[in-house]
């Protein structure tokens, strides 16, 4: 898939396939900072002090414990729903939206009985702690880009050259596709490059059909191209503040949600997807090319 997708976007040979990219990106710079970002709870504690805003986490379920979903009913009833994710997860693996409407549970807007929910929670707890966070609703200005319980996610790439200040390298908005799983890389999200200078959206693309620009969403005609992303400057300031607090890293991709509470940071990743990392550059919407920047971090 990597080879065909790269050829469809860039043409020619992919100089850094995904597995090689993940291994390289996760090893550039300070190892302790990579470890910190891999721990979502520790990273949130550290970066909150740097001005970042994270979702409230009313419950942390410890690895190895057995959980009765009834324990979560009061927490779910207190807000607009919950989002559950592994403490050390990446790429959305094991994460899901969770609601209780009084009549029963829903996972990602689909009904589920308590027995199946308990089995899912306890299976995940066999491998990691689980963070039970507040559900984030999209800001009103982007409500037409949300699908069911899924808000659009803004991905900001911040980078730095060795011993220099960080800068915004690129930005990408992922708009969820109805009736598709969020981990469906080719069809689960429309990828919308964002002008890093203005916060203005370009036409999006579906990675399963990368040569077909999408200026408007096909299911509700919501505009993409030319639209300005609300809160973009706040998001950039938050990401750069977080990057400044981690001076030993070359490149971090920050996921944020433009929510009803303002911009909220979900996490930062140093081993992000190389296809997505280079996608804004295909449209001329990056402030620096990644390959020479990363080469500057390699040992002499």
Task: Characterize the structure shown.
- It is a single chain.
- Helices cover 26% and strands 24% of the residues.
- The chain has nine helices and 13 strands.
- It has helices spanning 2-10, 18-25, 31-38, 40-48, 73-77, 114-125, 232-244, 274-282, 290-295; strands spanning 59-61, 82-86, 96-100, 105-107, 110-112, 130-134, 153-159, 167-176, 189-194, 204-206, 209-214, 251-259, 262-269.
- The longest helix is centred in the C-terminal third of the chain and has 13 residues, at 232-244.
Q: Can you lay out the helices and strands and say which pair or pack?
A:
Elements: H1 2-10, H2 18-25, H3 31-38, H4 40-48, E1 59-61, H5 73-77, E2 82-86, E3 96-100, E4 105-107, E5 110-112, H6 114-125, E6 130-134, E7 153-159, E8 167-176, E9 189-194, E10 204-206, E11 209-214, H7 232-244, E12 251-259, E13 262-269, H8 274-282, H9 290-295
Antiparallel strand pairs: 1-6, 2-3, 2-6, 3-4, 4-5, 7-8, 7-12, 8-9, 9-10, 10-11, 12-13
Q: Briefly, what is this?
A:
The protein is of the alpha+beta class. It contains 9 helices and 13 strands. It folds into 2 domains: 2-54 and 138-295, ATP-grasp fold, B domain (D-amino Acid Aminotransferase, Chain A, domain 1), CATH 3.30.470; 59-134, Dna Ligase, domain 1.
Alpha carbon gap, first and last residue: 33 Å
Number of strands: 13
| Approximate helicity band | 25-40%
Q: Beta-strand level of the residues, as a percent range?
A: 15-25%
Using only C-alpha atoms, the radius of gyration works out to 19 Å
Widest sheet: strand ordering: 11-10-9-8-7-12-13
């Amino acid at each position: 898939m990597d080879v065909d997708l790269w050829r469809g976007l860039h043409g020619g040979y992919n100089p850094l396939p995904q597995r090689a990219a993940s291994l390289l990106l996760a090893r550039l710079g300070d190892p302790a900072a990579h470890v910190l970002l891999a721990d979502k709870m520790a990273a949130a504690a550290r970066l909150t002090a740097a001005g970042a805003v994270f979702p409230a986490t009313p419950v942390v379920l410890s690895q190895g414990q057995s959980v009765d979903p009834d324990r979560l009913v009061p927490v779910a009833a207190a807000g607009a729903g919950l989002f559950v994710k592994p403490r050390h997860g990446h790429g959305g693996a094991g994460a899901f939206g969770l609601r209780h409407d009084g009549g029963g549970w829903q996972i990602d807007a689909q009904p589920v009985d308590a027995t199946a929910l308990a089995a899912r929670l306890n299976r995940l707890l066999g491998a990691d702690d689980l963070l039970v966070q507040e559900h984030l609703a999209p800001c009103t200005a982007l409500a037409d880009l949300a699908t069911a319980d899924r808000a659009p996610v803004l991905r900001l790439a911040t980078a730095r050259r060795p011993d220099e200040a960080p800068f915004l390298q690129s930005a990408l908005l992922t708009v969820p596709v109805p009736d598709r799983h969020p981990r469906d890389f080719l069809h689960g999200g429309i990828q919308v490059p964002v002008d890093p200078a203005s916060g203005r959206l370009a036409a999006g693309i579906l990675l399963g059909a990368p040569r077909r620009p999408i200026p408007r969403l096909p299911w509700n005609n919501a505009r993409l191209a030319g639209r300005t992303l609300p809160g973009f400057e706040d998001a950039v300031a938050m990401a750069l503040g977080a990057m400044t607090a981690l001076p030993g890293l070359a490149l971090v991709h920050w996921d944020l949600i433009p929510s009803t509470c303002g911009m909220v940071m979900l996490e930062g990743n140093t081993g992000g997807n190389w296809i997505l990392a280079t996608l804004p550059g295909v449209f001329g919407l990056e402030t620096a090319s990644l390959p020479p920047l990363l080469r500057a971090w390699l040992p002499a």
